[in-house]
Amino acid sequence: MTTRKLEILVGAFVALSIAALMLLALKVANAGVAGSDQSYQLLATFDNIGGLKVRSPVKVGGVVVGRVANIHLDPEQFQPVVTLEINSSYNNFPETSSLAILTSGLLGEQYIGLQPGFVDESVEILGNGDRIEDTKSAIVLEELIGQFLFNRGNQ
Amino acid sequence: MDKAVAKPLVDIQNLTFSRGERVIYDDMSMQFARGKVTAIMGPSGIGKTTLLRLIGGQLKPDAGHIWFEDQDIPTLGRRDLYQARKKMSMLFQSGALFSDMTVFDNVAFPIREHTKLPEEIIRMMVLMKLESVGLRGARDLMPAELSGGMARRAALARAIALDPQLIMYDEPFAGQDPISMGVIVRLIRSLNDALGLTSIVVSHDVNEVMSIADYVYVVAERRVIGHGTPEQLRQHESPLVQQFLQGLADGPVPFHFKAADYAQELMELKA
Amino acid sequence: MILDKLQQLGAATLETIQGFGRATLMLAGALWGRPRFVKAWPLYIKQFYVVGVLSLLIIVVSGLFIGMVLALQGYTVLSKFGAEQMLGPLVALSLLRELGPVVTALLFAGRAGSALTAEIGLMKATEQLSGMEMMAVDPLRRIIAPRLWAGVVCMPLLALIFTAVGILGGHLVGVDWLGVDAGGYWSAMQANVDFEQDVLNGIIKSTVFAFVVTVIALHKGFDAVPTSEGISRATTQTVVTASLAVLGFDFVLTAVMFGG
């Protein structure tokens, strides 16, 4: 076979594998919310993060607007501090917004729900590095059961 | 005789080579004169091919020198060895044609690898070499389509493609019909004389070798047992040389492999 | 008795270590010096064709079927928990992290690896390698190097194609046949598959496998006893050794990448 014919076939092979890579990158993996230049960071302190993990989604009314970028323990307060990476196309949340750690379905994974707050003249818009004060911790099943039994005991 | 001619192209001095425990050559010396056809003969299994590989630097001897021009082959580094190999070539028993190339590309291979000549000149050179072995018409065939004799001639054309000084033939007559044997005998002689080559022929075909060689070494039992021109050898007094030249079944090289006494062994079976 | 066994063990160990040594020497010889990509371009193209393009059919067919089987099996289990929506991630993650690189490597060892071993073994047996060396052309660079590069580059590409085709095969069975929601198939996949963690790690895995399989195949051929029996033995050894090496490396790499 001539080199030209071989080159065409090899070229087709390489093109096919690039197409496969594109499919995997764009359609299969979520390459949407990533890259630091298209996002900004928010901080939040929780009492308990439950099963929250790095890369867990941040949702507003079920729509993913960002992901958890980092989780670490505040060395003085002994409270977990969560860094959120929010897509910069959603850059107008007011500082009165609140966060809650929720669970998708009965057995599903945990995510952060962002509840946007009210807006008036005195309320500023959250920017890069700002902290959200109003947070609700994860529901820990053992504590819930313990509380339930305690309440029944009181009755 | 003037000195330049007297100095041999290849000079093997006190060569010792062993493979594992088995000693193949023990303190052997031989000289190959420029412009001559020198033959090495001997029974099969004494490592005649090994000798050619030693000269080509593919194997390293345990001791001794192999002088090629003014270089001692076993001491050469990789780069110098590859330079030296460009001046020699070898015709393998199987021909060793590259099975994925046509005859033309096979002959063109060394030229393309070692020179930057334009394709028209390469084409001319290849056709000249193929013409000299009578295979110009077979240039577009694949090696698998050639007969054994033709494959060996094509390999010969490839071996002389870069006009080497030394050409080594490994059993060039083995497994050939009488006609192609005759062709190859004539080619070895005529190429040697026409191109001013130095030829080394390794073989055990006594008649063919005796007809073309200028000088013959007979090798057996790890050393040279006799050497001289074909005429001198025919007069040689060593019974081993005579047995080999005349092809006698029994002699110093016994017909029977080393064994216990025959009669005694039969008796044991009976008992 | 015990001494005999001990001697056998020692001999086998030494033999293995020598094999490693010879393979390393071969590798160093093939990679040593500047590769002449311009002059050797047709050689490289030819090997890319032989190693890559000719392996494409078996890779595509196997990928398709493995994706379809994964979807079928996964669906029956997931539907018991009412979690059919997780079919996409199941298929995609299994293929990306494990089956894509590993099955491609095993198929590659059987298809291209054995062919490489047989080809080089035959070239050795017919003295083509020796002949080349006597023509002052280094067979390590002329024969081994293009095949090594072709193997190392082609196998990750084949693994990508295998994985993509497998995911499409899963779609075929899961969505078109079993009735999982198409949007759910893709969106659950996107929510759970990470480009760096899953796709890139898969590519790294299959690059390592490519190197291992190709070096084993080339070494077994280059080291083969130059007889027809020796070549058939070398070909078998290539498939067995390469497959075991792939599984071993897979465990180590998986532990490093996804475990702990």
Describe the structure.
The complex is a heterotrimer of chains A (155), B (271) and C (260). By secondary structure, chain A is of the alpha/beta class. Chain A has two domains: 1-36; 39-141, no CATH class. Helices cover 26% and strands 31% of the residues of chain A. Chain A contains two helices and eight strands; from the N terminus they run αββββββββα. Chain A has helices at residues 3-28, 141-154; strands at 39-45, 57-60, 63-73, 80-87, 98-103, 110-115, 130-132, 134-136. Chain A has an eight-stranded mixed beta sheet with strand order 7-1-4-3-2-6-5-8, with no helix packed on it. Chain A is elongated, with a radius of gyration of 23 Å. Chain B has 271 residues and is an alpha/beta fold. Chain B is built from eleven helices and ten strands. Chain B has helices at 3-6, 48-55, 78-85, 103-114, 119-132, 148-159, 178-195, 206-212, 230-234, 239-246, 262-270; strands at residues 10-19, 22-32, 37-41, 63-68, 71-72, 88-91, 166-170, 198-203, 215-220, 223-228. In chain B, the strands form two sheets. Chain B has a six-stranded mixed beta sheet with strand order 6-7-8-3-9-10, with helices on both faces. Chain B has a four-stranded antiparallel beta sheet with strand order 2-1-4-5, with no helix packed on it. The radius of gyration of chain B is 21 Å and the shape is globular. Chain B starts with a helix and ends with a helix. Chain C has one domain. Chain C has nine helices and no strands. The longest helix of chain C has 39 residues, at 87-125. With 260 residues, chain C is mainly alpha-helical. Chain C has helices spanning 2-31, 41-52, 56-80, 87-125, 128-134, 139-177, 182-192, 195-222, 228-257. The interface between B and C is medium-sized, with 23 and 15 residues.
Oligomer: heterotrimer
**Which protein chains make the most extensive interface, counting residues with beta carbons within 8 Å of the other chain's beta carbons?**
A-C, 27 and 29 residues
Q: Biggest sheet of chain C, in brief?
A: none
What portion of residues of chain C belong to β-strands? under 5%
Tell me the series of helices and strands of chain C, N- to C-terminal.
HHHHHHHHH
Give me the Rg of chain C, rounded. 21 Å
So what's the overall shape of chain C?
A: elongated
How many helices of chain C? The count is: 9
Euclidean distance between termini CA atoms of chain A: 90 Å
Mean pLDDT of chain A: 82
Poorly predicted regions of chain A are: 32-36
